[in-house]
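Item description
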Amino acid sequence: MVKGKKVAPAPKAGNTSSTAKKDSAKKDWKSAHSHLFVKDPRDFRIGRDLQPHRDLSRFVRWPRYVRLQRQRAILKLRLKVPPAINQFSKALDKTQASNLFRTLSHYRPETREEKKLRLVGHAATEVKGEAKKSGTKPIYVKYGLNHITSLVEQKKAKLVVIAHDVEPIELVVWLPSLCRKMDVPYCIVKSKARLGQLIYKKTATAIAVTDVRKEDQTKLEQIVAAVKPLYNDNVSDMKKWGGGIMGVKSQAVTRKRERIAAREANKSSSKPV
């Protein structure tokens, strides 16, 4: 007998199923339409396909001012911040700040052109011997740290607004304590640049409101009523230390140590005496 490969037995006529026919029909259709399923792998060499989006922020050499900003922000989180400095992190929320700045926008100081026109008109009325109605000094917010300090000490300021990002912070770190001592309402808002816009400057450390018109008297009273409980009367909250928030990895290590200590404490308590 000649040895060779065994031929598979022919399938019986009764064993053919509809599923096998469908599979074969699918394979035949794909083989007949192979041009529809051509593989087109991407090529990421130079001048070929676009590279996939990758987060390369860790590999970018950022400008020095960006690195200093980020390092300062991280240090403020990590280090323990004394209460005198930590109080500047508690600024007014968006709604309260927008109401405040909307009211203060009506009391921006005069520009040079406006002041010149007012003084010229005042001089003209004096020459004519008329009343000095046109020469009355307008009501506007006061600025300048020395000027605001004297207004607070004389209790002429009705509201003091301090920026939260003054650099160096020593310029205004004493001002909240002075306002509390003299019982002058004060608040802390974000962005010294936003305060500077009110007085036509780049930045401003603080501004003070000494007087308002009759139509804005109720608005000022509402602002003072909302601000006083948050700052002047909230002495205990203003004496809290800030910072001490560690990174994600340090927090994970601390939690792991706490779990191990708790597990060992449970084991020692479960042992019979």
Observations:
- The chain has a mean pLDDT of 86.
- The first strand starts at residue 80 and ends at 81.
- The beta strands are 80-81, 142-143, 159-163, 186-189, 206-209, 242-243.
